[in-house]
C-alpha cells in the first residue's frame, strides 16, 4: 500500500479514511467511507483511490470509481483502458472489448487499445483478428518494438515460426535481447528448430547458459543436437532436463532414440522403461520399448510392452497391429483371433486387421473364415504386392484357379520383375 497517499489527522479525505480502514482490516468502516468518497471527494482523489484499490485486489470498487469518472469525462480514453483492464481480470472479455472499441483512431490510447484487443482475441483463439489488430498497430507505429514483439509472439504461439524468425532477428539486431521477460535469443533458437533449420537453431541455443534454460528450451536444444547427429550432446542435454524435471515425459522418447543412435540399446530400453514409470499412458514409449527389446532379442519383453501399451490405449492402431504381428510370428493364431475380433465392431476397421485374421484362420486350416477375411481386406489392400502375393498363394492352394489368374495379372503389373509369379501365371493359363 502506498504510504504517501495518507494525510494523518482530522483533514483526511473520505478516500484516505477508506484506505486507512482497509489497513486496519475494518471492512465495514471502509465501505462507509468509500460510499462517502464517491459522493464528496475530488476526481483526482478518486482516481488515486481507484489505483490503490485495484492494486490491493478490490477491483469491483475500483471499477465503480472508474465508471463514475468516465461518465463525467467521456472523452478520457485512459479511463477506458483501466476499465478494460479490470474487466479482463474478471474474465468479462466481451464487455472489455466493447469498452476498447469505444477508443477511436486518433486517440493517444488507440494503439494501446489495439494491443490489448489483440491479446484478448488471441486468448479466444481468434488469431486472424488478433493479427489484424497488431498489423494495424504496427502501421500506426512502425518503430515501436513492443508491437513487433507482440506480432512475433503471436506467430510463435500459432506455429508460424518462419514468420516469427525475421521479427525476432530484427529485434535482436537492434539490441533487444529481452522484452517482457522473454529471452529473444532463446525464442529465435526455438523458432529455427521448429522450422527445421537446425544449424541456425543450435547457434542461438548454445548462447543460452544451461542454468538459464527453461525445460522446454532444454528439450529443444537436445532435440536439435539429435537432428544434427550429435548424439552425445543430445544425451547430455536430455539427461540435464531429466535431472531438473523428471516429469517431462516427452524427453524419454528422444533420450532413448539418442542412446539407440549412439549404439547403446540397453540404455535406451532402460530410458523407455523410466519414461513409462513417469507416464504410463504414453503409448509412444511402449512402442519404442517393444522395438528396442526386439533388437535386443528379448521377445518376452516385446509382447509384454505391447500388451501394456494396448491396455494403456486399447484404440491405438499401431500397438494393435504390432501386437497382432507378434502373435502371428509366435504361432499364437487363436490368441491373435481372440485379440482382434473385438475390433471388428469398430465403425472403421483397419484393413490390416482383416489381413491378419485371414492369416491366422489360414494357419488353423479354417479355410472359409480365411477366405472371408482375405475378401474383406482386398478392397483396401489390392495395390499392396505383399498382400496380393499371399492371397494368390492361398487361392491357388485351395484350387481357385480363375481367381488366382485374375489376381496374378494384377500382381505382375505391380511387380513385373517377379519371375516366380510370372511363371505361375503362364503355367496356370496353359492348363
Description:
The chain is mainly α. It has a domain at 383-431. The protein has helices at residues 14-23, 27-40, 43-55, 59-72, 77-89, 93-101, 110-123, 127-140, 145-157, 161-173, 184-194, 198-205, 215-227, 231-244, 250-261, 265-278, 283-295, 299-312, 317-329, 333-340, 351-363, 367-381, 385-397, 401-414, 419-429; strands at residues 178-179, 182-183. Strands 1-2 form a two-stranded antiparallel sheet. The protein is elongated and about 115 Å long. The termini are far apart.
Total helical elements: 25
Mean pLDDT: 93
The class by helix and strand makeup works out as mainly alpha
Rough shape? elongated
* Uncertain parts: 1-9
The fraction of residues assigned to DSSP E strands is under 5%
Counted beta strands:
2
Q: Please state how the strands of the largest beta sheet are arranged side by side.
A: 1-2
Amino acid at each position: 500500500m502506498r504510504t504517501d497517499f495518507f494525510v494523518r489527522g482530522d483533514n483526511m479525505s473520505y478516500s484516505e479514511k477508506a484506505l486507512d480502514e482497509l489497513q486496519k482490516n475494518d471492512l465495514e468502516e471502509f465501505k462507509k467511507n468509500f460510499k462517502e468518497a464517491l459522493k464528496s471527494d475530488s476526481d483526482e482523489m478518486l482516481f488515486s483511490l481507484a489505483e490503490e484499490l485495484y492494486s490491493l485486489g478490490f477491483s469491483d470498487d475500483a471499477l465503480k470509481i472508474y465508471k463514475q469518472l468516465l461518465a463525467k469525462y467521456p472523452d478520457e480514453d485512459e479511463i477506458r483502458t483501466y476499465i478494460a483492464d479490470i474487466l479482463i481480470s474478471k474474465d468479462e472479455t466481451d464487455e472489455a472489448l466493447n469498452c476498447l472499441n469505444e477508443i477511436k483512431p486518433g486517440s493517444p490510447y488507440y494503439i494501446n487499445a489495439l494491443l490489448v484487443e489483440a491479446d484478448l482475441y488471441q486468448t479466444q483463439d481468434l488469431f486472424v483478428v488478433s493479427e489484424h489488430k497488431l498489423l494495424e498497430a504496427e502501421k500506426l507505429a512502425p518503430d515501436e518494438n513492443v508491437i513487433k514483439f507482440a506480432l512475433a509472439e503471436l506467430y510463435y504461439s500459432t506455429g508460424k515460426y518462419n514468420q516469427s524468425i525475421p521479427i525476432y532477428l530484427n529485434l535482436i539486431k537492434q539490441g533487444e535481447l529481452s522484452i517482457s521477460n522473454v529471452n529473444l535469443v532463446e525464442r529465435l533458437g526455438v523458432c529455427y528448430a521448429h522450422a527445421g533449420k537446425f544449424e541456425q537453431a543450435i547457434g542461438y541455443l548454445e548462447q543460452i547458459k544451461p542454468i538459464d534454460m527453461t525445460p522446454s528450451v532444454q528439450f529443444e536444444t537436445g532435440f536439435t543436437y539429435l537432428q544434427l547427429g550429435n548424439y552425445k550432446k543430445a544425451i547430455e542435454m536430455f539427461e540435464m532436463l531429466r535431472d531438473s524435471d523428471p516429469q517431462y515425459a516427452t524427453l524419454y522418447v528422444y533420450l532413448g532414440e539418442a542412446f539407440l543412435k549412439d549404439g547403446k540399446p540397453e540404455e535406451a530400453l532402460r530410458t523407455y522403461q523410466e519414461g513409462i514409470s513417469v507416464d504410463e499412458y504414453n503409448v509412444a514409449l511402449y512402442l519404442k520399448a517393444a522395438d528396442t527389446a526386439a533388437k535386443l532379442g528379448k521377445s518376452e519383453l516385446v509382447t509384454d510392452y505391447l500388451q501394456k501399451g494396448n491396455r494403456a490405449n486399447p484404440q491405438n492402431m499401431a500397438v494393435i497391429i504390432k501386437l497382432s504381428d507378434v502373435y502371428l510370428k509366435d504361432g499364437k493364431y487363436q490368441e491373435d483371433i481372440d485379440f482382434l475380433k473385438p475390433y471388428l465392431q469398430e465403425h472403421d476397421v483397419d484393413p490390416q486387421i482383416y489381413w491378419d485374421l485371414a492369416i491366422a484362420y489360414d494357419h488353423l486350416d479354417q479355410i472359409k473364415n480365411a477366405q472371408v477375411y482375405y475378401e474383406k481386406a482386398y478392397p483396401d489392400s489390392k495395390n499392396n504386392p505383399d498382400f496380393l502375393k499371399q492371397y494368390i498363394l492361398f487361392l491357388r492352394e485351395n484350387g481357385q484357379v480363375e481367381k488366382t489368374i485374375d489376381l496374378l495379372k494384377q500382381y505382375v503389373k505391380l511387380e513385373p520383375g517377379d519371375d516366380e509369379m510370372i511363371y505361375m501365371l503362364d503355367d496356370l493359363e496353359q492348363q
